[in-house]
């Protein structure tokens, strides 16, 4: 009878252990080509606070080179949440009251961590974690061809999306950038069109508008990197030197020149495309106005010469 009870107990323990390993496997992610676990999940399994786990790492930093433990970037953490959306990831979406991005441990990092944690739980948890990593490696190895096929399909879909975006954008240009009239209240549509024009520049944007304010800066942050911006405006414009300095720290290069030579408003893209705006950019959508693409390339030279 005692032998039978012992067998039942052993089976129950085995089932519990298998379930624990299964749960741990769900907490293993692939980042930078490595199978890793997030610090908060590790802490929960070891029944420690996350901050204490990380303190132990910092006190013994020589044990944890970057291939054993590393901190996630914003992009890696966002991708992780997007792909899995697990409860643990949602919990640390606000960093769990933390002011830093999570750290992750590889299998080797876990093996280095476990001796530093003096608890009865740590030994069995470490064994289960090691077994979970082993099972994950076996699973990945036995399904390599499937993963490769899925990756190839994903790359093809991304390429199709990219080509579709190019064609769609070209169609949008042909439809929208010839001539467009906006009526009072169409503020979003008007701003969207101006931003599309700004994003089309590869080298230089020239804006001529006597009454600009810092709202134009909010649109110019959408420009492509390293595109130069030159604004010609009057003394009546409401944009300060401080605004320009702050903008240039993050989105160089912006130059503003004061002049009274212009009456109308224009946008020139890469010295190739000329747009005439019927209203000041800061007033887009407040009243009925139009934006026209002017086909005469000679006008660009004449306006810039002016």
Tell me what the structure shows:
With 306 residues, the protein is α+β, with helices and mostly antiparallel strands. Helices cover 52% and strands 17% of the residues. The strands form two sheets. The chain has a seven-stranded mixed sheet. It has a four-stranded antiparallel sheet with strand order 1-2-4-3. β7 (228-233), α11 and β8 (254-258) form a beta-alpha-beta unit. α2 packs across α3 (50-59). Mean pLDDT is 78; it is low at 3-8 and 90-96.
Features:
alpha+beta, 7-stranded mixed β-sheet, 12 helices
Helical proportion, percent range? 40-55%
Count of helices?
Answer: 12
Question: What are the segments in which pLDDT stays under 50 over at least 5 consecutive residues?
Answer: 3-8, 90-96
Helices and strands, in order, run as: HEEHHEHHEHHHEHEHEHEEEEH
Largest sheet: 7 strands, mixed
The tally of strands reads 11
Across the major sheet, the strand order is 5-11-10-9-6-7-8
């Amino acid at each position: 009878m005692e032998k039978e009870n012992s067998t039942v107990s052993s089976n129950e323990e085995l089932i519990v252990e298998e379930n624990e390993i299964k749960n741990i496997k769900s907490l293993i992610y692939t980042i930078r080509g490595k199978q890793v676990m997030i610090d908060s999940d590790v802490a929960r399994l070891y029944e420690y606070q996350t901050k204490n786990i990380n303190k132990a790492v910092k006190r013994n930093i020589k044990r944890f080179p970057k291939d054993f433990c590393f901190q996630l970037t914003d992009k890696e953490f966002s991708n992780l949440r997007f792909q899995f959306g697990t409860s643990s990831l949602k919990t640390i979406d606000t960093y769990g009251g933390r002011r830093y991005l999570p750290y992750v441990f590889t299998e080797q990092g876990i093996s280095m961590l476990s001796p530093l944690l003096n608890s009865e739980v740590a030994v069995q948890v470490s064994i289960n974690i090691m077994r979970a990593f082993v099972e994950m490696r076996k699973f990945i190895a036995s399904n390599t061809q499937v993963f490769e096929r899925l990756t190839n399909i994903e790359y093809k879909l991304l390429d199709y999306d990219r080509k579709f975006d190019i064609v769609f954008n070209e169609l949008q240009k042909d439809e929208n950038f010839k001539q467009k009239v906006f009526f009072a209240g169409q503020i979003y549509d008007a701003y969207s069109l101006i931003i599309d024009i700004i994003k089309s520049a590869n080298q230089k944007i020239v804006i001529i508008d006597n009454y600009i304010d810092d709202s134009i800066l909010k649109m110019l942050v959408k420009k492509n990197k390293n595109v130069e911006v030159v604004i010609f405006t009057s003394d009546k414009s409401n944009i300060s030197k401080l605004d320009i300095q702050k903008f240039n720290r993050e989105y160089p290069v912006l130059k503003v020149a004061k002049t009274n030579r212009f009456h109308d408003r224009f946008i020139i893209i890469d010295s190739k495309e000329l747009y005439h705006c019927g209203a000041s950019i800061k007033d887009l959508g407040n009243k009925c106005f139009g934006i026209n693409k002017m086909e005469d390339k000679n006008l660009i030279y004449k306006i810039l010469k002016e």
